[in-house]
Design goal:
This protein is an all-alpha fold and about 190 residues long. The chain contains 9 helices and no strands.
Amino acid sequence: MKRAGIVVSVVAALVVVALLYLRQEDERERQFDAEIRAAARRYGVDPLLVKAIVWRESGFDPSVRGRAGELGLMQIQEIAAQEWADAERITSFKHSHCLDPATNTLAGTYYLSLLIKRYQHTDDPLPYALADYNAGRGNVIKWNNGRAATNSAAFIEQIGFPGTRAYVNTVLRRHSLYRFRARFGFE
């Protein structure tokens, strides 16, 4: 009987620790929801997709700097950030402004919206747009032939970089998780 009480106590303690961890993770993932929603609304992109990209790119750390000069939550490269600034007629823009979460999510979501539009002719533009976001258009063009030109499942199989294939699948899974949670009021 004493042993059963110890087991129950240990299990209860583990449940409490797990719930505290999940709550902390949930708070960390929600800290930029306002910026993400505003950018998504402005550029017509699913905010849960933007959030999934932020989760994968930076883990919700706005100060992250990538090896190739990417900055912030969505790991925006300078050329993409400047394209956004030019489209929005923002003068005196500096890439370092992308360390600001609001600026970063606006620039990144704008760029993502262009990529999604680029692949509207496919059965599902998201895998193509995510591969382009991660590996660039030139690589997507190389992988996007035969059935893969319009069939997203075939396209994912043809992605030539294992890291990019993993990136696409990871972001799509996280997006599905966020959508599932939202359906039941947890997002």
